[in-house]
Amino acid sequence: MDRKTDPGPSKAIASSGLHFDLVDDSAELQLRALLRETPLGGAIEATLRREPRYFDGAVVEGPFHQVLAARRGQSDSEASDSIVAMATRSVRVRYVNGIATPIGYLGGLRIRESARKGQVIARGFQKLRQLHEDGRTDFYLTTVTEGNTAAIDALTKGRAGLPNYHELGRYFTFILPTHSWQVPRRDPTLQVRPLQEKELPDLVAFLNREGQPRLFFPVLDEHDFLAKTSTYRDLSHEQILCAWRDGRIVGTLAAWDQSAFKQSHIERYTGHWRWSRHLYNLLARCLRLPCFPPPGDRLRNVMLALPVIENSDPAVWQQLLHHVRHLPVTKQNDSLALGLFERDPLVPFAQRSAVHCYETRLYVVSWDPEQVQPEQFNGRNVYLELGCL
User: Which of 381, 382, 320, 325 is closest to 349 using CA atoms?
Assistant: First the structure.
């Protein structure tokens, strides 16, 4: 499918002056405005933006991608400049019990304050249910920020018309410094260096071999890399580090700068963060740690992508993290962002050097509880690429 918007069902659903339909590039200005004006909940309120073009970032979410918008007005023409809510639906092939399976992801839920009363969520999910009938997937994944109690309550309390939400666990986003005073012990059997283009088949083979036993690991091929239309768009081969031992890859880690198409802005600090960040920043500057920017500024961070280590070897992880901090793209930013599910063996190592951790709740979402039994996923390790959420 083209990375724009699949036309899908054309019939809009109206509710209290709202019309729900799929949108494409013609809605660019309204979509980006909505992202700027609807911060995520939590102690540190941030907006996740997509400048300068919203759909430039759609390709990282999945080869199939739709944007559902709610417009204010009595007709489509009257509503063309008044999007008040949105959500995204994407589908990507992932491993489930070692089998390549199309899995959906529901994300990007944003609702203006003026539209949060009434049935905007219920009506929006009614439209999503219609889209789901295309049969592209049986169920979806979604994440909700910890502390965003309004969204958690609205989505997971079993309201009529909404799908079933089954919580799998916590997904952590660790903020790591770009500098470390510690130098790992050198391993003469290990060579860490950037990927060469001719080695792309080796990288893809390693990732699929290691990813197949992991729940929801994406099924990858060479087309997912090194092109503007790739899943890992703007990730050059020089930014992908591979650890080699005895002529084979045993670990990967990449520094993925997404600032050309996705950005995070701090909007407001609440609670103790309103004053404690100033004290922290004084100490951080002395220790060369990432500082918290003032409200309104962009977080200058790099996504740590492809954190895949054979046998979760801590020595390989330490070497990869050490080398990724010396990449030019890392030195141009203030921090590193690493996303891991709570049962990932790398979590303890990330916790040791993290200066902050954001938590989200991961859910399996399904409309047909008889067809999907999410309890089968309990206790399993999950892999989700932070930069693709």
Answer: 320
pLDDT digit of tens for each residue in the chain (389 aa)? 333 344 444 444 444 578 899 999 999 999 999 999 998 877 788 999 999 999 999 999 999 999 999 998 654 444 445 899 999 999 999 999 999 999 999 999 999 988 877 778 888 999 999 999 999 999 999 998 887 777 777 777 767 678 999 999 999 999 999 998 788 888 999 999 999 999 999 999 999 999 999 999 999 999 999 999 999 999 999 999 999 999 999 999 999 999 999 999 999 999 898 999 999 999 999 988 899 999 999 999 999 999 999 999 999 999 999 999 999 999 999 999 999 999 999 999 999 989 889 899 999 999 987 778 888 888 889 999 999 99
pTM, two decimals, is: 0.90
Q: Please report which residue ranges of the chain form alpha helices under DSSP H.
A: 28-37, 120-132, 149-156, 200-211, 273-287, 314-324, 328-331, 347-353
How far apart CA 65 and CA 107 sit, in angstroms, is 11
- Distance CA(306)–CA(217), nearest Å, equals 10
CATH number of 13-170+361-388: 3.40.630.30
Question: 268: closest CA among 44, 42, 12?
Answer: 44
Same fold, 13-170+361-388 and 176-261+289-359: yes
Task: Collapse the DSSP code of 173 into the 3-class scheme (helix H, G, I; strand E, B; otherwise coil) and give the result.
Answer: strand
Domain chopping of the chain, boundaries? 13-170+361-388, 176-261+289-359
What is the Cα gyration radius of the chain? 21
Domain 176-261+289-359: top CATH class: alpha beta
Q: Please tell me what DSSP assigns to residue 314.
A: H
